[in-house]
Amino acid sequence: MVTISNDSSVKDNRRVYSPISLRGTDCKINSQVSLAGLTSFRVGGPAEWYVAPRSMEALQASFAWADSEGLSVTLLGAGSNLLVSDRGLSGLVVGTRYLKQVNFNPETGQVTAGAGESIPRLAWLAAKRGWKGLEWAVGIPGSVGGAVVMNAGAHRGCTADILVNARVLSPGGKMEILTPQELEYRYRTSVLQGGDRLVTEATFQLQPGFDRSQVMAETNDHFSQRRTTQPYHLPSCGSVFRNPGPKTAGWFIEQAGLKGYQIGGAQVAQRHANFILNCGSATANDIFQVIRHVQQQVEQRWSLLLEPEVRILGEFPF
Questions:
Q1: What is the SS3 assignment for 256?
Q2: DSSP letter (8 states) at residue 4
Q3: Model pTM?
Q4: CA angle 128-134-139, nearest 5°?
Q5: pLDDT tens per residue, range 171-180
C-alpha cells in the first residue's frame, strides 16, 4: 500500500504525499495535482494521484501501480473535451501529454502517432508533406487519443474514416490492437467512451503524393473557417453538445435565446451557441449549471434532451 512519508502536509483537507517513484522507470506519481491547468476549460480540482508517463514502460508501470493499490484510473489526454469537478478526481489520473511520437510511412501512406500528439499538429504535419486525409482535423482541439475515443470529426470528415487501428492498454496491462469495426464507431463516440482502457497510439491511412501547397491551402481554409465562426479567445472545451441532427445543437440553443446566458464566470458564447466560455472566474460548477440550464430550456421548448459531447468527470451538486 501507499507509504505516508513524515513530510506529508495537509492542503485543502487532503493529504499531500511525497512523490512515488516507479521502479525501473524515470516516472514519478504525484499527489494532489491541480487539473485546472491541464484542461482547456481551465477549471477543476486536484487529482488524488497524477502521472504523466513518457514511455510505454512507464505507462504500464503506472497502470500496474494503480491496480496494486486498488485505485480507479482516469485518462486525461489534451484535456480539451473534459469538465472536471471542483472537488477533483479520486484514484490515479494518467496524462498522455508526453506520448507524442509520430512516424510517417511513405510506402503505405500511413501515419502512426502517440496518443498525446495534438490532432491539429498532426494535420499540419501531414499537409506539409502533401498527404491528404486530415485537413478536417486542423481546428479540432485535442489529442490523437481523444480523437480515437470520441470519433472526433468536422467538415464532413471523422476519425472513423481514416483510422486503420488503435493500440489500447487495459488496466490489467493487456495490450490490444483494435480496428474501427471493433471500436463500434458511431457519431462522436466509440466503445472506449467512458471506459478504463487507454489508447496509446493510433495508425491512420492517408493519401500521399499530392501537391504540398494545395493540401496546405485546403487545410488552412478549414482552420480559418473554424477560427472565424467559433470563439477561441477564452477557455472552452469546444462544442459542448452533440448535434441531434438535422439541426445543430447550436441552432436549438440560439433559438431558445440563450446566447450570452451566464452563471458566475461561465457564459454561452455569443459567436457560437454550442460553446460555453470561461470568462475568467468560472468554476466547474458554474459551467455545469449552465449546461443543465441549456438542457432544461431546450427540452422544455422542443422535448429534446441535448446530449453532452464534453466528458463530465467527478462529483457535481444538483
A1: coil
A2: P
A3: 0.88
A4: 95
A5: 888 899 999 9
